[in-house]
């Protein structure tokens, strides 16, 4: 098999199966993410179709391979997974080094990121403790038994209450559900005109309707919180998107269109003048309110979705819908990076070996990336092309991976809890560290 054959197969899958809208940019050096807009889910779908059509087994390592940056490097990688005869046939071809892909720039929680923007700008306070509430933030399952990161009923009262307790800043909702969309948009524009320089106006908009903004999670609609400010030009607004680490000028009418989407509703206003230094006791109370030492809600929800699709009934979801049911998993999985903020907070305050800190970051990375292994197997099960024996084997692999996810996360939480106890002891807080006899959690 020659590389050109694989490249042609890639293009065919993008056209016939994924209905890629950017094939006019397709060529050997086209970047999968930046040029063809393939997010992690679409890349997995592409790999799955190529695996089935070319008869090449795609290893789990491919799901997190950072050097699969272009069409050419993907083709070369697939050829390297072929049969010995295929490898010999292609031995004369070599791939030039490719730049690293950026499929998973860390985006953790847009609401929390917007709030933390003012905390990062104030040297008196540390934003890292506020991420304690993110790793187990609410995960939803909708009426069709699909995993979801957003729903109209979702509120952020837990974060709002604790943000005020920790940092002294009241986060007040300005969006009024009893008003029409047009009335709320008018209210928002009035607040935007009247707000002081220290106030932040947070709005929920549909990022999908801002095509010039990159939507690398390929969500439609894409509910997302950003911060808005007026500019000297009445037709332009300044948008700050802390979660995606982007800021710049947007045309006012485009933003209004994204705000008017029926898929979004919500917004808050808060003032950095209210920031006060955080008290360690309040941070300790927040940690205890957030840490779930005996459960991992996200993995529990994924397991629940899989189980519902594994035993379909007349009124339940079909197995062919399992892949779609886990479509939002990449958006949710990145919340686990919040553990890194917690380790960093304790590491910077009480100090422990930097090598250990880096090692735990690797464990967290493995936790995040292993959700892709589960999702890829779920997508295989959704093809309808597997025998009962193959389906059974894949379900066994998924349940084994879910158990491994639980074990990994419980280890992370156990070590964090030990560091928390040490931190409480050093600062002589109401929550005292355990007496001698508590074995340190090892990597």
UniProtKB/TrEMBL annotation:
Pfam families xref list: DUF6005 (PF19468), PP-binding (PF00550)
Residues in Carrier domain copies: 4-82
InterPro entries: ACP-like_sf, DUF6005, PP-bd_ACP
Superkingdom: Bacteria
Signal peptide from the UniProt entry: none
Name recorded for this polypeptide: DUF6005 family protein
PROSITE patterns for the chain: CARRIER
């Amino acid at each position: 098999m020659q590389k050109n054959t694989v490249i042609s197969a890639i293009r065919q899958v993008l056209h016939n199966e994924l209905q890629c809208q950017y094939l006019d940019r397709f060529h050997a050096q086209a970047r999968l993410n930046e040029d063809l807009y393939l997010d992690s889910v679409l890349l997995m779908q592409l790999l799955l179709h190529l695996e089935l059509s070319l008869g090449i087994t795609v290893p789990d390592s491919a799901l997190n391979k950072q050097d699969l940056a272009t069409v050419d490097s993907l083709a070369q990688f697939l050829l390297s997974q072929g049969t010995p005869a295929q490898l010999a046939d292609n031995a004369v071809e070599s791939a030039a080094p490719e730049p690293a892909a950026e499929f998973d720039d860390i985006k953790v929680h847009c609401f929390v990121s917007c709030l933390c923007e003012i905390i990062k700008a104030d040297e008196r306070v540390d934003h890292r403790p506020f991420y304690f509430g993110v790793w187990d933030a609410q995960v939803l399952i909708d009426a069709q038994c699909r995993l979801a990161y957003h729903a109209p009923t979702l509120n952020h009262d837990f974060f709002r209450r604790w943000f005020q307790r920790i940092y002294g800043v009241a986060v007040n909702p300005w969006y009024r559900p009893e008003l029409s969309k047009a009335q709320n948009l008018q209210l928002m524009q009035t607040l935007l005109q009247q707000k002081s320089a220290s106030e932040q106006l947070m709005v929920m908009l549909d990022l999908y309707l801002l095509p010039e903004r990159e939507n690398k999670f390929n969500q439609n609609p894409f509910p997302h919180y950003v911060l808005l400010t007026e500019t000297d030009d009445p037709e332009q607004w300044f948008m700050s998107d802390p979660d995606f680490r982007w800021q710049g000028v947007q045309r006012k009418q485009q933003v209004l269109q994204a705000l008017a989407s029926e898929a979004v509703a919500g917004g808050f206003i808060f003032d950095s003048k209210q920031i006060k230094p955080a008290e360690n006791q309040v941070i300790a109370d927040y940690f205890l309110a957030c840490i779930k030492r005996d459960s991992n809600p996200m993995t529990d929800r994924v397991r629940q979705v899989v189980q519902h699709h594994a035993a379909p009934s007349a009124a339940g979801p079909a197995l062919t819908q399992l892949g779609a049911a886990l479509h939002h998993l990449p958006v949710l999985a990145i919340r686990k990076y919040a553990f890194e903020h917690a380790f960093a907070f304790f590491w910077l305050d009480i100090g422990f070996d930097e090598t250990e800190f880096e090692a735990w970051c690797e464990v967290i990375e493995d936790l995040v990336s292993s959700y892709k292994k589960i999702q890829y197997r779920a997508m295989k099960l959704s093809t309808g092309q597997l025998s009962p024996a193959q389906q059974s084997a894949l379900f066994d692999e998924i349940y084994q991976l879910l158990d491994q996810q639980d074990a990994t996360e419980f280890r992370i939480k156990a070590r964090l809890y030990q560091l928390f106890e040490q931190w409480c002891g050093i600062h002589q807080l109401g929550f005292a560290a355990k007496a001698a006899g508590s074995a340190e959690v090892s990597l």
